[in-house]
Write a structure and sequence with these properties.
This protein has six helices and five strands; from the N terminus they run H-E-H-H-E-H-E-H-E-E-H. With 191 residues, it is an alpha/beta fold. Strands 2-1-3-4-5 form a five-stranded parallel sheet, sandwiched between helices. Helix 1 packs across helix 2 (60-77).
Length: 191
């Protein structure tokens, strides 16, 4: 298991790895034909995925950012070896081999997250954003991703405002359960 900045072991439970494996498989199945391939260019070009999250600062959110990175690396490096499957379509094998992940540290600061998102989209030409960890950072980067028509996956942030009822953002894919829904379930469990 890896060690975080505090020296504590930060390996994820097996269930988290499996969840991220299925998330990655979903990502390849859903996003590959559209967003990833559309921005990839000719065969052989790297498909860049930008990951935004806190990786420094020693806070709890930095620990979550570090775990997000471990999970993504695990999913792509050791748990997500679909390209070794003999029955997998060659075009999907090519797609997976071309993925390049660019990790950026937002330090849990929405202003930094906004700058990073703009750089990843405008300069680095990512075709997909993953992040951020802090809800305030996700809220800061989402308008940039949406206006540039860059798909964004929200795996951790839980603020209800990210996907408020009545607001549909076709470029945002939320995996985390919103706070309002978590509170409903918690209230049911307590009564």
């Amino acid at each position: 298991k890896a060690r975080g900045r505090s020296g504590a072991r930060v390996g994820l439970p097996r269930a988290a790895y499996l969840a991220f494996f299925f998330f990655s498989a979903w990502l390849a199945w859903m996003a590959a034909p559209s967003a990833l391939l559309a921005g990839a260019g000719p065969t052989g070009d790297k498909i860049r995925i930008g990951v935004i999250g806190p990786l420094s600062g020693g806070s709890e959110s930095a620990e979550l950012g570090f775990r997000q990175r471990i999970a993504i690396e695990y999913a792509l490096d050791s748990g997500f070896r679909l390209w070794e499957w003999p029955t997998l379509d060659p075009s999907v094998k090519d797609l997976l081999a071309r993925i390049e992940v660019l990790y950026r540290d937002d330090r849990g600061d929405p202003r930094v997250a906004r700058q990073i998102a703009a750089d990843l989209i405008d300069v680095q030409k990512v075709t997909l954003l993953i992040g951020a960890v802090n809800s305030s950072c996700t809220l800061a980067i989402q308008p940039i991703a949406s206006s540039s028509r860059t798909p964004s996956i929200c795996p951790i942030s839980t603020a209800t405002r990210i996907t408020s009822p009545g607001i549909v953002d076709p470029w945002l894919f939320r995996i985390s359960v919103p706070d309002a829904v978590q509170m409903q379930y918690l209230a049911q469990e307590l009564t």
